[in-house]
Structures are given as C-alpha cells and as structure tokens.
Specification:
Number of helices of chain B: 12
Oligomer: heterodimer
Order of helices and strands of chain B: HEHHHHEEHHHEHEEEHEHHE
Number of strands of chain B: 9
Shape of chain A: globular
Structural class of chain A: mainly alpha
Largest sheet of chain B: 3 strands, mixed
Mean pLDDT of chain A: 84
CATH topology of chain A: Cytochrome Bc1 Complex, Chain D, domain 2
Mean pLDDT of chain B: 92
Number of strands of chain A: 0
Radius of gyration of chain A: 14 Å
Largest sheet of chain A: none
Helix content of chain A: 40-55%
Largest interface: A-B, 17 and 19 residues
Strand content of chain A: under 5%
C-alpha cells in the first residue's frame, strides 16, 4: 500500500507543478499515465519488466536486471531514463534488455507512460 | 503477432566475442571453464541435471518427483514400440538398430560426411520407419518421443562424446549451430546464450535459467507444462528449441530442420565428457 500512497503523492506534486505552469492541464492525466504505465510495465504481453526487475508492487520478479528503485536519484535527467527504456543497447551494446522502442515492443506513447510510472519509483 | 515475429527473425545480430573462429576444441574448453567458474559448487557431471544442478531449493522437490518419474510409462511404451513394431515388409526397429539395448543414443548427433548432413537420433528413427515403407512419424512428441525416451534410457551413464567436427562441411554445420546459440533473435532480441549462458542461474520472473552445459544430456523430457496440454508430457529436444524461440517472439524453425540439427550438434558437443541421463523430468 505504501506504493500507491507514494504514487499519489508524486502524482499530486507533479499535478501541482503542472498546475503552476498551465492552469488548463488536467491533473488527472498525469496520475492516469502513471497508472497506465504500471499496467503496461507489469503486463506479460507488454513491458513484462518484472521478468527481469524487482519493482515495488509486483510479485515474483526476476533478478536479471537491478531492482528499479530510487529512479530520480539514478536518473536526475528523466530523458536518460526514457533513453534506457527505449533502447538499452545505447548504453550497453550486449544488453539482454529488449530494445522496446526500435523493435516496436511498446509504442511511443506506451513508453512515455512507462517512464512516468518508473520515475515514481 | 506472426507478422512481427517474421520481421524480427531477420534481425539476427552477432554480439558475442566468442564467435571469432575458435576451434571446436577451444570452444569446448572455454564453455566448460565458463560454467565451472560461474558455479564453483556444482560438480562437473552434475550439470546434466539442468536447472537443478544450480538451484538447491528446487532440487529437493525434483528429486521427490524423480522417485516415481512421470516418464516411466513412456519409456515402457517406447520399449514396446521398439520390440513390437512390425513394418509392412516384416522388419522392425531391431533391424535398423541391432545394438539398441546396449545404448545407442551416444552415436548421435553425428555429421554424415557423405550426405553432408547432421544425423540425429530422431532422424535415424524416421529413416528406419520410412525406408521400411511406413509413414513418417511426427517429430516432436508421441511415438517419436517415446521411442527416443527408451533409447535414451538404455544409454544412461554413458559418456557424451560427439566426434569433433572435422572438414569444411562438418565445421560449417557446427558453426551454424554455434551462431544460432549466440545470435540475438526475435522481437525481444534475446539469444540462447543470454538466457542459458550469461544469465544462467538467474531468475527470469519465477523461473531459474538452466546452464546450457549438460542441456542435451537428458532429452527427451517429460514436462508438466506439456502434459497439461496433451496429457502426455513427453517432448523432444527440437520441441523445446521451438518453445524457446517462440518465447522471444521469433518464428521457430521446424523440428529436424538443418538449423535445429546444427544447433543440436553444437549444443551436444559442448557437453562432451558429461554423462547421458535421459529421459528427464521437468516443470
């Protein structure tokens, strides 16, 4: 349950932030993106990130990749996180992590949502 | 999905440094050394036990299974097929495999220099069937897996000793198999080596990845997962290859295709020196 509280918190603070930038941005869409991103990340047919990574809230994770946590500290620049998820080969040519973008495993908007979710971890 | 898989089988990328023209003997040495180093607590011959050679927790449960193994009745069926099958011309399997009871699985796979092809045990079984005028058996399960299980059982305890590939054609087949093993494939872009070499012993979701060393020693296997689908859980090595290709969303090759036979040739050569112990029992 800790996680959802955290997601809500983060989502809320992002919402506040966006609210400051543009009063017209619907706050709910960010929270929605995080929720959608979680579904995509956890789904076996989509991201299936749990095959290799422990992620808070996900059961029976694999341990091929590092646990996904403290993502803001690991990736101060969110765009780097997006790059990693889009094509992990950029950082490590031999990586076992699938190239989600170039191989069209996830669509561009799905990657955006996964990034939103992972960035809350 | 089919279409996506088709596109991505073409995207085969060689990323392993091991691929560069090492001799089969050198490959074998490196392969064994790699696993010995990765799993220092596993005695060399224990690698014939697949994932159970590297994961103590699942081993106990498996050993309990092995006391009354599900493959037993299929070994019996295979024995009956061997003894009782009568082809239209009056001949039987004994005529093709006079030494079967002494254990002949160890003669396969081998490279037939005259024909320029890798010969597998299942290939030899079907050759016996068809050259005696009967209709070819299916390759992946059923009778084929049963007879193969019986012949494997008779070979238990003998040493795997695939002849070292020599000559251009045999080396080409070996290298085809080796390339398949190390090449990334499928939409998920994973190689056999990713899962069963570099990350063997790790967990992919809830499954522990078995080491490729010793992989082919215990085939055919009885898998509970296959039993759920067919009742009969026996399947051949090439059935498993197809499953592992599909998992990465690649289009599988046909069982007994030149590609999979070459893979079996390389894959079995890498286990030279270990013991045959088929059939196996798996989740």
């Amino acid at each position: 349950m800790r996680i959802s509280a955290r997601i809500v918190n983060t989502a809320a603070s992002i919402a506040v932030l966006i609210g400051c930038l543009s009063l017209t941005a619907p706050a709910v869409s960010v929270a929605g993106a995080v929720e959608d991103g979680k579904d995509i990340a956890f789904s076996r047919k989509k991201g299936n990130c749990l095959a290799c990574h422990a992620i808070e809230g996900g059961s029976l994770p694999g341990n091929i990749g590092p646990p996904l946590m403290a993502m803001k500290a690991r990736f101060p620049n969110k765009d780097d996180l997006k790059k990693q998820i889009t094509d992990a080969r950029v950082k490590n040519v031999n990586t076992i992590m699938p190239p989600f973008g170039p191989h069209q495993i996830l669509k561009a908007d799905e990657i955006e949502k996964v990034v939103e979710f992972i960035y809350t971890l | 999905m089919k279409k996506i898989a088709a596109i991505f089988t073409a995207v085969v990328m060689l990323t392993s440094p091991l691929i560069v023209n090492a001799s089969p003997q050198q490959d074998l040495k490196d392969f064994r050394a790699f696993f010995k180093n990765k799993f220092p607590d596993t005695p060399m011959n224990d690698f014939i036990n697949g994932v159970y050679s590297v994961h103590k927790e699942s081993r106990d449960q498996w050993e309990a299974f092995e006391e009354f193994p599900s493959y037993d009745i299929y070994v019996d069926k295979g024995e009956a097929l061997f003894n009782d099958t009568k082809f239209a011309n009056g001949k039987g399997f004994k005529d093709c495999f006079p030494n079967a009871k002494k254990g002949i699985k160890g003669n396969y796979p081998y490279f037939d220099t005259k024909k320029g092809v890798v010969v597998t045990l299942e290939g030899a079984i079907n050759k016996c069937v068809t050259s005696n005028g009967d209709k070819k058996w299916g390759w992946k399960k059923g009778k084929m897996a049963h007879l193969s299980a019986y012949l494997a059982y008779k070979t238990r305890g003998q040493t795997i000793s695939v002849k070292t590939p020599e000559g251009e054609a045999a080396l080409a087949a070996y290298n085809t198999g080796k390339t398949h093993f190390y090449a990334k494939r499928g939409q998920l872009n994973l190689s056999c080596a990713d899962c069963h070499y570099y990350y063997s012993g790790y967990k992919i979701r809830a499954d522990i990845l078995s080491p490729a060393l010793g992989h082919t020693s215990h085939f055919p296997v009885y898998r509970n997962k296959w039993a759920k689908k067919d009742g009969d859980g026996m399947g051949t090595l090439h059935r498993r290859y197809g499953g592992c290709n599909k998992q990465v969303r690649a289009r599988p090759f046909k069982a007994q295709s030149a590609e999979y036979s070459a893979l079996e040739y390389f894959h079995t050569y890498m286990s030279n020196g270990l013991k045959w112990n088929g059939p196996g029992q798996r989740k």
